[in-house]
Amino acid sequence: MKIKSLFESKFIKVFDLQYGEGRHYYNATRRDENDLVAAKSTEEFKKMLPDAVSCVVIWNPSDDEKSGHEPCLLMNREFRYPTGQYLLSVPAGLIDSEDCTGDNDNTAPLIKTAMRELHEETGLKVTEKDTVSIINPCLFSTPGMTDESNALVKIVLNRDSLNGMSQEGAVGGELFDGFDFLTKAQAKKILEDGVDEHGIYYSVYTWAALTYFVADLWR
Q: How far from chain centre, in Å, is Cα 144?
């Protein structure tokens, strides 16, 4: 396969993947040419890190009657420029080079990225009472157009209050417009409706978080 660069910027690149004479496939990617998923061997593919991490964040009060709350799925409202809308979203972000340990352990970078993104987008820090674990190490959302991939990481906040929540940690062009705390019934309705309570569509990673929460797979 021949690879030709067509466009490069800081966050996105486009390559022409030439699988044969006259056979062109265009790939939008976050990766450099030497790290393209299409050029990896099967063994390299199985061991690769995703581009980013999406977090399924669940607030789990220790005592429902005492706190007055049942477990909730914590979502935010983030402006997604290609859609022109604030979308019901999960905390998410790219894996930074400093998150990688260099020892072929793919678990640590995912956990570190998830904890960092939680803090940046909600103001909350993971404590020793909370639990963090990987749901899925690498998922592709639109493999017909892009090799962009995300890991899904579960963060369960085992506490009775969420003090200090803030979206002031937004970086670059990130724009947020508040939080949503969804009960199981509310999350189920959004799944059934196919849109949020404002009638707005959402991403496949939001759908995955809603499904995971409603199915009680987090317990």
A: 19
Q: How do beta strands 52-59 and 72-80 pair?
A: antiparallel
Give the per-residue pLDDT at 66: 57
pLDDT averages per 10-residue partition of the chain, 219 residues? 95 95 94 97 96 98 71 97 98 91 82 96 97 98 96 97 92 94 98 98 98 98
Q: What local confidence, expressed as pLDDT, does residue 98 receive?
A: 84
Q: Using CA atoms, how far apart are residues 23 and 42, in angstroms rounded to an integer?
A: 22
Interatomic CA distance for residues 60 and 219, integer angstroms:
10
Return the pLDDT at 22: 87
CA distance 99 to 183: 32
What radius of gyration, in Å, describes the C-alpha atoms of the chain? 19
